[in-house]
Amino acid sequence: MMKRRPRTAPAAALVLVLSLSASALAYHSSTVFFSADKSLVSVSGKVSDFDFKNTHGLIRLEVRDASGTVGP
To answer: Are 59 and 46 spatial neighbours (Cβ–Cβ below 8 Å)?
Structure first.
């Protein structure tokens, strides 16, 4: 008679892969920056700061309104 091998290893591997892919999708979500119900906007201004930390870039601009005042 042949012994049956346990099938826990493939199931555990599947659970691991699914949990890692879910966390990767959550980490790289675009909902913080983009909204599907709003169109794109164009902004021009002077680059006041550029940070590149941990593979993420952040650009800060000095943008002037119609009266010439620099906005927040």
So the answer is: no
Structure tokens at 37: 């119900």
One-letter amino acid of 32: V
Between 69 and 1, the more confident residue is 69
pLDDT of 53 strictly over 60: yes
* Contact predicate 60/45, CB 8 Å: no
Question: How distant is the alpha carbon of residue 13 from its chain centre?
Answer: 26
**Residues β-bridged to residue 58:** 51
- Give residue 26's pLDDT: 60
Q: Is 37 helix (H, G, I), strand (E, B) or coil?
A: coil
Supply 16's token pair.
């691991």
Q: Is the pTM of this model over 0.70?
A: no
Number of H helices and E strands in the chain, helices first, is 1, 2
